[in-house]
Each structure stands twice: as C-alpha cells, then as structure tokens.
Write a structure and sequence with these properties.
359 residues, alpha/beta, DHBP synthase, Rossmann fold, eleven-stranded mixed sheet, four-stranded parallel sheet, 15 strands, binds adenosine monophosphate, binds magnesium ion
C-alpha cells in the first residue's frame, strides 16, 4: 500500500449514496455482493483502479471484474456481445456469472491487465446494486481480500483485510453464495468455464442450444495458456493467447492452517491420525458434510473443532468463514471432506484444491 493508512469509514446499507460519491471521486469502497465482499473503484478511472492492486497486494497481471447494474452500461465496458453471451446474461444476470467479452475503449489497461478482453458481471445483491447505481459508473471490483488469502464473506473478514487500505466499507449480511463468481467466455461455438462457481456447467449447458459444448478449462491449461485447448481470447488479435484467466494461476484461497483433503470414507481416519500425531495443544479443524463421515458414538477429542454442513450450498457459504474460524482458534491443520464434483460441489472442490496447494 502506498502512503499512510487511510481512515476507513464504516457505512451501513442505507448509506449507499455516500459510497457512490466516494467511488465517483476516485476512492475505494468495499461492499457486500452475493458471492463475496468486493473492493470497488470507478472502472473508467485508471488511478483509482491502480489503487485496488496496491490495497490488495494483487499482481498487476491479474485483471479485474467490472460490475454494472444498468444494461445500457454494458457498451461502456464491452465492445460487442455475441449472441451466446447475450443469452447467458439474459438467463443468469443479475447473478454470480461473469462473462469475458471484447473490451471497450473506455476501460483502462490496468483493469484488463493489458488484455483485449474484459470480465463483466451484473451482481444481484441489493446493496451492491445500490452502490454501483449511486456511483453512476461501471465499478471494477475484485474480492476484498489481501491477495492469495480466502475471500471475505462477511463484514468482519472484509474489515480485517481492508481497514486502513480503503476509504469506506459498507456493512452487510454474510454473502449468500460464499464462493467467487463463475467466469466464462464464448470461444467460437463453445463455452469455456475459466473459474467454477454457483452458476454450474450443468446450468449453463441447459440454456445453450444443443450441441454447444461447455468445457471447464483446467488449471493446467490455464497456467500454460494452451492455445490448442482454448484459442485466442475474444477480441484479441489472432495468435497465441497468453493465459485464458490469469488470476487462476496465482496462489489463492489459502488460510494459515495447512489444508488436507479427504474423501468421505477417509475423513475420520485422517482426523484420528492427525490427533494422535498432534503435538501438545495443536488443534484440528474439520469441515464435513452432515451425516456422512462423523462417528455417531464415542467422544470427539477436545482438540477437534468440527463444523458439519447440511448441504453443499451451506458448505460453499461457510467454507471461507470456517477457514477464518479455524485460523482464529489456533488450528494448525484443517481436514476438509471432498464433495462430489457435481453442481456447486465442483466449485467447492476447485477452491479446496487450491487452498491445499494442489493446483
Ligand atoms: P477476483 O475478482 O479476485 O474474484 O478475480 C477475478 C477473476 O476473473 C480472475 O480469476 C481473473 O483472472 C478473471 N478475469 C478477469 N478479467 C479477465 C479477462 N479479461 N479474461 C479472463 N479472465 C479474466
Ligand atoms: Mg479474488
């Protein structure tokens, strides 16, 4: 962060006009969205967007998502919208879907990390929408965490990451989804998922014409920028694409504690082994799906901090909050049950693998 700490204002959800004015004046505002808390700046103000990277410690090659409310603002952000992308927005906007489109001239280089494409989302959260409407401009907003750390999904987490680094934080309820948006792009006549999220492969496949493939671009392809697999970015000159979604190659989502993944049938054996290995007072966080792997009889060791989720939606919503809780209660290891890779389980698994340093 350049310069001395800022005196960060805390606003409540009725003070979105003030948040909008700060954004219009080139300031930084953290606000709740349905996915995670976002760190916003005027997407047409290069200096303000540069300040986002400083506040987060974000690498300059990781582009920002631009958020809009008014469909008429789409042309301020994207130079064109192909029919498949239009269809996806018609079905899933407002909501947790980000589309990568050719970039409009008014979007500064710093936002797109120099790419000829830009990522756009219409958030659904009423407070996010009120802040963006009050700003009267498209708002670039990555997750409001320090780079590499889990995204904040409630006010306390956003405050811990960003107080002293931003002009204001709007207090809201915990985020409903709890995972970052799905990022997708249309390449020719197929759809690529660059980052999985609450809008799943299955949901996208249901609304596109039969025969349009929906493929998840693996982290490996993303990290090597395999043009054979992905083709050039929309709107970019023909030729090798650099990296389809640059953000996915950086270290991500990691708590202080070591994250160990376990299949359903292995969770309790893994916990028991770690308990018997654990030196002294070291604690172990366990995140599991209810009724699948926790013994129903016998005492659970007092060093185990167990959270069970009733559904995969709850797992997604609680994942980053649990990471924070386990760090705060001094856990050195977190054992996380691997969900099935269907529906939002696939996005949870993606974040868990990154948190565990596997990708
Ligand atoms: P965050 O806002 O921190 O949730 O991260 C934004 C994500 O969107 C990162 O994974 C970026 O790589 C991705 N992204 C943003 N702009 C583009 C773009 N123009 N092309 C591909 N991916 C993008
Ligand atoms: Mg992020």
């Amino acid at each position: 962060m350049a310069g001395p700490p800022l005196n960060t204002l805390v606003l409540d959800s009725s003070q979105t006009e003030i948040a909008g004015r700060i954004l219009r004046d080139g300031g930084l505002v953290v606000f709740p969205t349905e996915t995670v808390y976002g760190l916003g700046a005027d997407a047409q103000n290069s200096a303000a967007c540069t300040a986002i990277f400083a506040a987060k410690g974000r690498p300059a090659d990781n582009p920002l998502i631009v958020h809009i409310v008014d469909p008429a603002h789409l042309e301020l952000v994207a130079a064109s919208v192909d029919p498949l992308s239009r269809r996806l927005f018609e079905r899933f906007a407002p909501g947790p879907l980000t589309l990568v489109l050719p970039r409009a001239a008014g979007i500064p280089d710093v936002v797109t990390a120099g790419l000829e494409s830009v990522a756009v989302r219409f958030p659904a959260h009423p407070v996010a929408r009120a802040v963006i409407s009050a700003a009267g401009t498209p708002v670039a907003a990555p997750s409001a965490n320090r780079s590499g750390r889990p995204s904040p999904t409630d006010f306390d987490a956003a405050w811990d990451h960003m107080h002293g680094r931003v002009d204001a934080i709007v207090r809201g309820e915990p985020s409903q989804v709890g995972l970052e948006s799905t990022v997708a792009r249309v390449v020719g006549s197929r759809i690529e998922l660059l980052r999985e999220g609450a809008i799943t492969t299955e949901m996208i496949a249901e609304v596109v014409p039969a025969g349009v493939p929906v493929v998840t671009v693996s982290s490996y392809q993303a990290s090597v920028g395999s043009t054979a697999a992905t083709g050039p970015l929309p709107g970019s000159a023909a030729g090798p694409a650099p990296v389809p979604s640059p953000g996915v190659r950086h270290r991500h989502y990691q708590p202080d504690a070591r994250v160990v993944l376990a299949a359903t049938g292995e969770v309790w054996a893994t916990v028991s082994r770690l308990v018997s290995d654990a030196a002294g007072r070291s604690r172990i966080g366990v995140l599991a799906v209810s009724g699948r792997c926790i013994p129903t009889s016998g005492a659970i060791d007092t060093r185990v901090d167990l959270v069970t989720c009733m559904s995969l939606d709850e797992y997604a919503r609680e994942l980053y909050r649990c990471f924070r809780r386990f760090d705060a209660t001094g856990c050195s290891v977190i054992v996380a049950e691997m969900p099935e890779p269907t529906g939002i389980g696939s996005a949870i698994l993606d974040r868990l693998r990154r948190a565990a340093g596997q990708v």
